[in-house]
Amino acid sequence: MKLYTARGDRGQTDLLGERVGKDDPRIDLLGELDETTSAIGLGRAHAQESRSRDALLTVQRDLYQIMAELAFTDATRPDAVRFPADRVAWLEDQTDAIAATVTLPRAFVVPGDTVPGAALDVARTVARRAERVAVHLDGQGQIPNPEILRYLNRLSSLLFILARAEDIAITGGPTLAKREDRG
């Protein structure tokens, strides 16, 4: 089996329903979401807490469902691929449950105390970038389902609290951005 088709050699690729340029904003968003799920996978590979690994795998599967919906044109998109609102509720529940077990300082946190926490902080920033691209496309009427924006908006909160949970589990607490000693 060949892993390449050479169909994209002239700068085009397929959405499900039409051939578009690889610089099409919809393709850009799919790439941002692919990068997001890969960054989350790195965080999951390093995560020490089983609840982190489980939640992250579920998020990756949710992102694949979002990518499936976005890969169709409006004319060809089946109702079966529509991303459901209950996934946003699940994300909120997970974030709240983990936040209830983590005491956050009342200051900015410097990422990098642990490998799992740092990987999840990178995933958070990648997810935020994907969200910004989605917001731009939504402004052009290109996001067919408002649940996608809602999910992406909440995803960074889950990644932030999972990063802090990983840091606390390994080091006991995060490093603060503001120096405590002024000497």
Strand order of the biggest β-sheet: 1-2
Element order: H for helix, E for strand: EEHHHEHHE
Strand content: 5-15%
Q: If you consult CATH, what is the topology? A: Hypothetical Protein Ta1238, Chain: A
Number of helices: 5
Describe this structure in words.
The chain is built from five helices and four strands. It has helices at residues 25-46, 50-70, 85-99, 115-139, 146-171, and strands spanning 12-15, 18-21, 109-110, 175-176. The protein has a two-stranded antiparallel ribbon with strand order 1-2. It has a two-stranded antiparallel sheet with strand order 3-4. α1 (25-46) packs antiparallel against α4 and α4 packs antiparallel against α5. The termini are far apart. The mean pLDDT is 92.
